[in-house]
Write a structure and sequence with these properties.
By secondary structure, the protein is an alpha/beta fold. It contains 7 helices and 7 strands, in the order E-H-H-E-H-E-H-E-H-E-E-E-H-H.
């Protein structure tokens, strides 16, 4: 599975979920209604730069802090196709994958990226490109590729249940 997008940089390290999506908006459950609050505590102007083809390129320990599914939900709804970072907080990375949003760790690619650079990842082979410069990353394991392809864990489970449900 190959994904491509235009880079939007958030170069700071230790960006936590509390600034990516403040707690005062956690009562919102509709992903479309979440979008106006993404990046609220960091830089609300970043929302205006999101497109349906965004590759978010981030610093180290991105997504630390509270475990908030609202962040990757709002990112996906806002057009973020995948993230490339120096490193990710473990729970944030898993929340992203569970919601069908790939996260790729590659500090060298982050160093090479500039705003609006073309970023492409092949999840099957582990090839990552930033404006044509190639970087090797481990391929996403098959199960995680299935999750991404299905649109997330819930849709993956639904698909499995539908496939095993016998119609009488």
């Amino acid at each position: 599975m190959r994904l491509e997008g235009q880079a939007l940089l958030i170069p700071q390290d230790d960006v936590d979920t509390d600034v990516l999506y403040p707690g005062s908006f956690l009562n919102i459950t509709d992903v479309e209604a979440m979008k106006p609050h993404l990046f609220e505590g960091l830089d609300p102007g970043l929302r205006d730069r999101l497109t349906p083809e965004t590759a978010l390129v981030v610093g180290a320990n991105f997504g630390s802090g509270s475990s908030r599914e609202h962040v990757p939900q709002a990112m996906r709804a806002s057009g973020v196709r995948f993230l490339v970072g120096r490193s990710f907080a473990r729970i944030f990375a898993r929340n992203c994958l569970n919601l069908g949003l790939p996260v790729i760790t590659c500090p060298e690619a982050v160093d090479a990226a500039r705003d609006d650079a073309t970023v492409a990842i092949d999840l099957d082979t582990g090839s990552l490109e930033v404006d044509g410069a190639a970087f090797a990353v481990p391929p996403l394991p098959p199960f995680m590729r299935e999750l991404v392809g299905a649109g997330g864990l819930i849709d993956w489970v639904r698909g499995r249940l539908d496939a095993t449900t016998e119609v009488v």
